[in-house]
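Weekly sync, protein design subgroup
Attendees: M.S., D.O., the rotation student, P.L. (late)

Item 1: inverse folding check
M.S. brought a backbone from last month's batch and wanted to see whether the design step gives back something sensible before we order anything. D.O. pointed out we never logged the input encoding, so this time it goes straight into the notes. Structure tokens as presented (405 positions):
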């Protein structure tokens, strides 16, 4: 493998780093009173405080044309290559930039609208997503359609100029804060019974304020209200809001879900600084832990695993760049990342001692409960972007080619 970067990639990195050096410190100073950890407040209010900061950061990024680098130049992007996306994700992690307001909109829904939308749809919604005017959610999962997404059954029946929606979705991130959503619905109710469940699925942009839509936040283990159940009861969605043709929803959605798999490149860098931060903090809050041989061994192993994860990501990337089948490296990189994220969070609470388990607003909470939050939050990594078992199935089936029983 040759990881040397082309001159245009080095120039891309230099421009990004110079921009971050100039813009990030004043931004952080201006928003010093509102941190990423504000989301640990009770219920929705904590999330809202954090989101305003993220909106401001996304707008700042957009001013420099750094919000949606993979989008075409004509829509405010930079036509960035896969390698440049990886450089971007590494440098953002290295600089520990704030989160963005609307990752779903920028990474998934925007590209779908650019690829599949009409001119009218693009002109209406693309600037809105880019400049963080409205929040967007992505409504795919249903109670009986998660890993087996094509089993989705929320009905959308054409009626005049509209579709009429009935059914429910679950685990939809920040739907209670979203003004718009991109939903997969079933327009051909016979398709599942006829054994062609990937057919008859349609992508619709939904106005979340329309009548007949009930959004109910779910309180999670960290006390946050991050995702929701959504119930449709005769909600009307104009046919003009359909993205792509009727029955083309699977095609519309799948093109962009694959992009998630490359987005993990910067995670190893973020993890290394998390590990350094927890060891530094242990020196002051729980120094005895650093003399414990078993914890010392776990720190050393974590260092090695982070480096291994970084190299695995490069291998996965080089497969994608060579247009080769992405296994086993891509599913392995996802497995490795989720395992390591959870291992590090467990190491943090063991290193920092019992007080690391206190959550905000306890005065005893270490660093405002951020380590406690990390510990509970990282459980999601073995579910999001393809569950651990499904990744193992892919490796067994496509890479090792184990026989099916
Ligand atoms: C933090 C978070 C945010 C999310 N945000 C969104 C969102 O914004 N929009 C959205 O649409 N969805 C969202 N989801 C939902 C997510 O896409 C689903 O949770 C995921 O697809 C898994 O589906 P499920 O929860 O129904 O679990 P299931 O698919 O029912 O899986 C349950 C268990 O069975 C295992 N399993 C399933 N199939 C197989 C198989 N064939 N072989 C072996 N084991 C199997 C799984 O690995 C898992 O352990 C989010 C989830 C999380 C955790």
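Designed sequence read out in the meeting:
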């Amino acid at each position: 493998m040759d990881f040397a970067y082309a001159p245009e990639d080095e120039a891309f990195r230099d421009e990004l780093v110079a921009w971050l050096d100039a813009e990030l410190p004043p931004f952080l100073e201006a928003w010093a009173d509102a941190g990423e950890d504000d989301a640990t407040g009770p219920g929705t209010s904590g999330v809202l405080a954090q989101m305003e900061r993220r909106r401001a950061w996304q707008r700042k990024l957009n001013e420099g044309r750094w919000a949606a680098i993979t989008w075409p130049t004509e829509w405010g992007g930079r036509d960035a290559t896969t390698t440049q996306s990886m450089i971007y994700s590494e440098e953002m992690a290295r600089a520990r930039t704030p989160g963005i307001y609307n990752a779903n909109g920028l990474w998934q829904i925007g590209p779908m609208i650019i690829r599949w939308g009409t001119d009218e749809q693009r002109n209406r919604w693309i600037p809105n997503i880019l400049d963080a005017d409205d929040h967007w959610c992505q409504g795919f999962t249903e109670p009986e359609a998660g890993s087996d997404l094509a089993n989705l059954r929320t009905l959308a029946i054409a009626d005049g100029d509209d579709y009429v929606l009935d059914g429910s979705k679950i685990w939809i991130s920040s739907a209670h804060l979203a003004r718009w959503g991109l939903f997969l619905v079933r327009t051909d109710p016979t398709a599942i019974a006829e054994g062609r469940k990937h057919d008859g699925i349609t992508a619709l942009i939904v106005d979340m304020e329309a009548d007949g839509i009930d959004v109910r936040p779910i309180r999670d283990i960290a006390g946050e209200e991050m995702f929701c159940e959504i119930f449709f009861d005769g909600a009307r969605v104009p046919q003009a809001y359909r993205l792509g043709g009727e029955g083309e929803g699977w095609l519309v959605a799948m093109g962009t879900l694959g992009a998630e798999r490359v987005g993990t490149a910067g995670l190893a860098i973020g993890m290394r600084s998390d590990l350094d931060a927890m060891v530094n903090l242990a020196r002051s809050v729980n120094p005895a832990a650093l003399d414990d041989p078993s914890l010392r061994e776990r720190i050393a192993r974590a260092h090695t695993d982070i480096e291994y994860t970084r190299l695995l990501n490069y291998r996965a990337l080089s497969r994608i760049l060579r247009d080769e089948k992405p296994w086993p490296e891509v599913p392995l990189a996802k497995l490795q990342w989720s395992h390591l994220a959870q291992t590090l969070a467990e190491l943090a609470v063991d290193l920092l001692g019992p007080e690391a388990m206190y959550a905000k607003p306890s005065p005893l909470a270490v660093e405002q409960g951020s380590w406690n939050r990390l510990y509970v939050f990282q459980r999601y990594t073995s579910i999001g972007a393809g569950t651990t078992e499904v990744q193992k199935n892919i490796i067994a089936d496509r890479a090792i080619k184990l026989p099916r029983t």
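Discussion: Residues 293-321 form the longest helix (29 residues). The first strand starts at residue 136 and ends at 139.
Action: P.L. to compare against the previous round before Friday.
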